[in-house]
Amino acid sequence: MQVEQILQNLQNESNFRTLTPLRHEGNFVFKQGFKMLNLAGNDYLNLASNSALKQEFLRSVREEDLYFSSSSSRSLSGNFDVYERLENFLKAKFQKEVLLFNSGYHLNFSCIAALASVPSTLFLADKLIHASMIDGLRGANFLRFKHNDMKHLQILLEKNHTKYENIIILSEALFSMDGDMANLKELVRLKKIYKNVLLYIDEAHSVGCFGGGFGLVEALKLEVDFCIFTFGKALASVGACVITSKKFKDFFINKARGLIYSTALPPINVAFSLFIFEKLANFNQERKKLKELSEYFKKGLRAKKLEFLGDFYIISLLLKENQKALECALKLEKNGFFAPAIKTPTVPKNSARIRFSLHSGLSKNDLDKVMELL
């Protein structure tokens, strides 16, 4: 099939993507000069636009961290000491080894691909895991279990646990599109039954927002083999890390291609991530307000008998058809709210939606206006 035909098919299916420049100003974005409240970001604690926080960081940053490029991979000359300062901070918190990556996508893609190279390894993946994890599975032995269906997962474990030396369960802690939590306690219980099972949990959308800010696994006091943090959402920074054992840290340093062959993050960005992690305990008010706003919005949607998904601050209004989701997004835009339509392949076919990504900088009045429009 020709490229032109592929693009035409996407347009016919109301599934053609474009990139529109946006100017950001606090809680708002400007699209072609039109001001809209941003309900599409993942800045859950509203830290990215916190000017006082940024100024405090710039006053405190060390001269040796004021580099806007590392100019090399970490395995060559790019291993600035600030990377290890951040890794050691988290190591002290979790009593486990930590390894930084440039992004959650780099991390998931290359760590899962590296694990897939180990002979006699099978992955069991939740049906709704993120694309970065799915891409890491290409060429791997894997099966998928129905979303959050622990009975289906146990059936697959029972069938396969004697056939492979290693079985790795892949899940998100808080799912990025449906906004629901994995049954982490049950996953840990299953891991203990089958001795060759490892747990790989992506905390991209939960780190910062639960307990003292160090994710759901830590808040629930659970033990997993690979805990993934990404810094570009609630932490208002950039990058990612895997929290794991020394054996697997050494393995990823040697086998994770996204680490080996990428220029490392700029030291100033890593210094900002460390700055935020050191302050996570200070953001309890933001976490409390985020929870209150989420409950308020869900209660209002239920009162209007609107179909939605989401147990926390990721709330998806289900519209099913691509065109219907696009029309709803356009209506919201015209009334000053930026919440683009989410379509396949980001979500399964016939589950197009508007994904509202709430943050602690919003007000109940903002949400009232959205609900009136809906």
Automatic annotation (TrEMBL):
Cofactor(s) this protein requires: pyridoxal 5'-phosphate
Organism listed in the record: Campylobacter helveticus
Record note on quaternary structure: Homodimer.
Pathway(s) this gene product operates in, as recorded in its UniProt entry: Cofactor biosynthesis; biotin biosynthesis
The enzyme's E.C. designation: 2.3.1.47
InterPro entries: Aminotrans_II_pyridoxalP_BS, Aminotransferase_I/II_large, AON_synthase_class-II, PyrdxlP-dep_Trfase, PyrdxlP-dep_Trfase_major, PyrdxlP-dep_Trfase_small
GO biological process, one term: biotin biosynthetic process
Keywords, alphabetical: Aminotransferase, Biotin biosynthesis, Pyridoxal phosphate, Transferase
GO molecular function: 8-amino-7-oxononanoate synthase activity; pyridoxal phosphate binding; transaminase activity
One Pfam family recorded for the sequence: Aminotran_1_2
Protein name per the record: 8-amino-7-oxononanoate synthase
Residue intervals of the Aminotransferase class I/classII large domain: 36-372
Family: Belongs to the class-II pyridoxal-phosphate-dependent aminotransferase family. BioF subfamily.
Catalytic activity: 6-carboxyhexanoyl-[ACP] + L-alanine + H(+) = (8S)-8-amino-7-oxononanoate + holo-[ACP] + CO2
Highest taxon listed in the record's lineage: Bacteria
